[in-house]
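Input set for joint prediction.
Command: fold jointly, output tokens.
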Amino acid sequence: METIYALATARGRAGVAVIRISGPAAHGVAERMAGPLPRHGRGLRRLRSAEGEVLDEALVLTFEKGRSFTGAPVVELHLHGSRAVINAVLNELSGQPELRLALPGEFTRQALENGRLDLSQVEGLADLVDAETEAQRRQAMRVMSGGLGRKADIWKRDLLRAMALLEATIDFADEDVPVDVTPEVLDLLSRCETAMRAEVQGVGAAERIRDGFEVAIIGAPNMGKSTLLNHLAGRDAAIISDIPGTTRDVIEVRMDLRGLPVTLLDTAGLRDAGDEIEAIGIARAKQRAENADIRVHLVTAEDYRDGGDHPNDLVRVGLADRDRSGHPGISGLTGLGVPELLDEIASRLEKRSEGAGVAIRERHREALLSGIAALEECRSKAESSDLLDLAAEDLRLAVRALDTLVGRVDVEDVLGEIFSSFCIGK
Ligand SMILES: Nc1nc2c(c(=O)[nH]1)N(C=O)[C@@H](CNc1ccc(C(=O)N[C@@H](CCC(=O)O)C(=O)O)cc1)CN2
Ligand SMILES: Nc1nc2c(ncn2[C@@H]2O[C@H](COP(=O)(O)OP(=O)(O)OP(=O)(O)O)[C@@H](O)[C@H]2O)c(=O)[nH]1
Ligand SMILES: [K+]
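tokens >
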């Protein structure tokens, strides 16, 4: 294994910056710069260049092989977090013949190769590093701490028990001993299948939590859509004017709505377009609104009162102060009714988030579906005594599908894709 190094913290001025070195040469290189180090501990040391110049006074942490994040020997240099210090130390490290700059995600890759994390935990870690909201953090933590692997292990244990029962039946089949194990086998199969299906059901919600929900604000020109968006965003993201047809491109604002990641969309006012550009804007507005998770339809107070049915993915809100009917409406100008609108959106999105479990990616869905398909095959064969051999083969396929979840098999082709989303230093 090579020895790699990289800045683990973000670039730019900060209180402290951390450089990680991982691999067999880590301790040797660090001692060359810092002098003798504790074997598995920490110490305050002067880091010197080869010429003897003091580069920084740093906190140096050492981790023994098998007892570090990567599983390889690790040294962490906790530096003063200025650009100049970071550059000086990185420059010194780049001159060390045993070292190479880490690729994106390469520390985590070492952790995977050294069995410190399974593949699903690596995926969870990737999501955790990207998490912007509380719901994203919680979901990533569930997966990073091994939730999917634990479930897969439980299912696998049941399937291996079913396999042993089937094989015992096959062995006894010659001996005229009437052993009917199928009820127990079928019971084990259906238990797994139900649990796996529940996880498949949750992948959609999990993906929404990771990628974010879209909420589109729609309505006629000049209704105050941009005003409402700016109010929600807390900044002037969209242009407000009393000229109808101001907004043309879709304006996007990312926000954290009670822990849920939401992209708000301000769209062109819907009407018969005044010109060609506006027509394009309106077409885009319709398209994006159609794909959004929720549409907030701004209407006049009169229209709101005349009401009527509307699809339940549509939150219909009436403007507050444009008539005197006195009903509680909404205004992006005064903020009236905005907390209620946010509550309504959040509660709808929370409903959509329900069911997210520890299967959170398309890769997980595919593995589970192929496992479920194998279990279905197995069940239909297990019911007929002359197909038990084939039933056992289907079970092996199902177990294999579970193994791909945690990366015990078929890892190589997915690694590139997973690590491409990591940053350098992770
Ligand atoms: N300084 C620092 N902070 C960090 C990390 C890191 O690598 N370095 N992490 C990186 O993502 C996360 C923590 N994850 C870690 C997981 C395992 C070990 C580790 O060395 N485990 C040893 C025990 C070490 C000890 O107790 O001295 C072990 O399990 O044997 C370190 C960090 C977040 N904070
Ligand atoms: N009285 C009142 N005026 C508002 C309110 N919200 C917005 N306005 C005004 O209505 C005009 C249009 O506001 P915008 O937010 O640009 O409307 P829009 O729906 O985005 O308009 P388009 O870009 O044409 O689709 C501006 O002059 C706003 O100041 C409100 O709640 N009450
Ligand atoms: K506007």
